[in-house]
Amino acid sequence: MRSTIRKSISDHRRKIAFGLLIVAVLFYALGTGFPFFYRLLFTLLALVTIGYGWAWLNLRGLEVRMFRVGTRGHIGEYLDAQVQLVNHTRMPKSWLEISEDTDLPQPGGRTVALIKGQLRSFRIATYLSRRGVYRTGRLRVTARDPFGLFRLTRSYLDYQTFTVLPQTVPLPDLDQRFANLPSDSVFSRRTPAITPESSTVRDYAHGDSLRRIHWPYTARMNRLMVKEFDIGVSAQAWAVLDMERRSHLGEAPDNTEELAVTVAASLVRHWDESATPAGLAANGSESWMLRPDRRPAQLGVLMEALAGLHADGSLPLDRFLQDLRPHLSGFNTLMVITPSRRPEWVSVLVGMRRQGVNVAVCYIDPATFVDGDAGALTGATGQTTADYLAQHDIPVYMVGQGDDINRQLSHPLTPRTAPAGERATEAERVAQPAAA
Predict the structure, then answer these.
(1) CA nearest 69: which of 61, 78, 57, 60?
(2) 117, 207, 254, 357: least CB-packed within 10 angstroms?
């Protein structure tokens, strides 16, 4: 990007200097009438005409093709493409700059020259340094004249969408209460509805539907027998990501937003590898609520959602948790990932804990992204919030800038030891805004 800007400034200065030269020669030609200045003026105008015509003809008769496999990649990989250029004219092509017209950081490019009827094939690669959803697939060909006065650009092909998935970290030491969820065990609950889960049979009673009759067992027992149905509910894991803009600090790409997304992506991948149904909820500019599912494509769906998430939401975390609460049960495990320094959401989590939901918090420490006294004050607020949650049996995992995520998620924080009166005062101070 910087090299492109430098080239543009250099070309602009060159054009200004050449234009001033023409004006000066024209002034002396008209002022003195010497044939030398007229010849020099005509020569300069001819150079301008030839240069523009050269650059214009360089872009004519070109055929551009690009071959690329896949529409998704990960941070740290390269976006590769095979580009082919064919010259269908008699005129040779020189000083052609081919680059991808994309909003990806630092797009790849190449400079080539072609003779009559020649086909050139080459590879361009763009380093994927930041997650997101980008426009790719469109090529920009720039032609220059031999004098460096003109740069004409023409675009080829159509835009396509490419998704850069967020970075993930292996979690071999994840806390056991979240690493080994009982995804294969099913909790039975009796239901009058007909479901795929049938647990037992009993004698027919007046009013039973004929659809409930177990005909093979009826024939064996020589009397009407009906099936009893259960509803099977398996353990499910949720990653709840706080994407309210007021909660996050720092400049991209090293900020609380990126760290929170990395933690969420790592948890989702770990749950998928352990065959635990994983879901995602986030309060971005639009509220996301992707329910846990066992489909093989679930991991890809969640990763694509995380790739496009940004801290641009306006819905507070406490209200978002209240909206999510009716969708949860005692068989759900909830990991809330937030850097929020406001305590209103704490009481909502305590209520979920009392409801029977297995709740935990991954607190993105904002103090590590702030310098000076503000960082110390923020750190004290975060520690107080963590202490209050720990007192209500809600484990808190603190992750800061530069921390080893696997290590930080291996064990929860231990609440500070303080006098009972001091702890009560801090708890009341944290819970008071939520109660209001």
Answers:
(1) 78
(2) 207
